[in-house]
Request: fold
Amino acid sequence: MAVRLSETYRARERERGAPGKRRRPRRRASRRAAPTNARDEAHRGLLGPSVGHAARGMERAAQRWRVPMIDRIARKLVQLGFLALFLYPFVPLVYRRLTFREAPVVTSWLLVWDPLLLLARLPRLGQGTLVVGAPLLLVALTLVAGRFFCGWVCPLGTILDLIRPLGPAHGRALRRSPGKLARLLTMPNGNSYARYYLALAALGLSLLSLKLVGLLDPLVLFHRVATVIVADVFSLRNPGFDIYLSVSLLFLLVLLLELWRPRFWCRHLCPLGALLGWLSRWTLLNRRVSEACNYCGRCREVCVMNAIPKETHDTDYRECHFCLACEAACPRQAISFGLGPLARARWQPKRLTPAGTAGEPKPRLLAGVYVPRERPRAERILPHVEGIAAKFGAAVTLLQVVEPIVPVSSAEVYTPSGDQLSERLSRAKEYLEAIQAKMRLRGIPAEVHLVSKAVVDGICETAEALQVDLIAMASHGRTGAARVFYGSVAAGVLNRVDRPLLIIRSRSGG
Reply:
């Protein structure tokens, strides 16, 4: 019995652990790890808390994207709804052709909204005619909501949006530097002035015949094509050759141009869009970009109308048709649309605030003019500095760095005598004081600062000592061997400075 008890004891000790060693207590479940509600339990799942955090992150991302995507889906539904309304007058015609029964005739209500067609008909209406109706209502709505008609209502624009994914140019409109002849017809954003000329030509041709207006008016063009296609397809005749001759070649050209460049017709050729764009300059509906913008440029990439010129917070309302693509593409959700003062609030940098803001010190700009023989080149930065200073109420420091003279025959640094140095500093001071006087006449506070040392050291040390908010300077723009032999002051300052730097290229070649 004693032996059996000993073996049993040893077996139990082996199961519990070595004799004489303390057993580890069981780890109790932490109360913090327990889910507090059903939502946390669902987020934890079977794979642990990491998956729960990922699920919560995905949920927050979905919430951020939900509103822009709903807006874009709503726009597509509105476009398709108006397209169906414009095609509704053809339904009785189709019904009569298919069933051989009488059907009521419905007049198309598309052309009555056309302000371009109204202007073309004005000379034929006679004197004393009171012009009322849908065209004036569209003009009034354009003054309130901009080119909403082009982006939400126009049937031709809807068709262009539907076929765009079929083309290789699915994306934003390309911006290429135009040639000398094209510059006369090209706007700064890359779109064309030709549509304005075509609008004037259409109104001029209307004096001869209203049929000539239909060659350029998008609503008339769409109505003609829809009428011809529906009438020929549902007739008893062989429609093949008739349809080929009847469908407007201009309509086919518009479709091909859309496959080549997004919204090419709207940006370069549409006369009705030119008229509505001219009225949209006074629109009350605005696009606002908050300070959450990180300058990623995604909004400019997805804008098919080139309505975002250079800066992401700027908007050309002559081009913008409020398609909401930029709002949906913004990763920071910094873009919104609306009416009133909230939407009219412009984006402002965090450090540079407009003049007159209470409790905010004036920002300081450092304009560098550091080589006397290159003053004309350096002066090209001054208009940019004056514009920034006038907008934000900034004070300007005019800096000129007098470099030490290095003789050609010696590698040692030559220190100029007192008379030579005084003469150079005197000329530099007179030069900067003349610029200072011009700035003060424009209401821009400016001061003169002179430094005698290496250029890069002088600029960086002065900027640090004065705690400037922005350094502005002109650059040669040298590349390749010229940059190796002559160096680059702008590159040197860029590598050392710890504050914003504005560099303007002074010429095209090095």
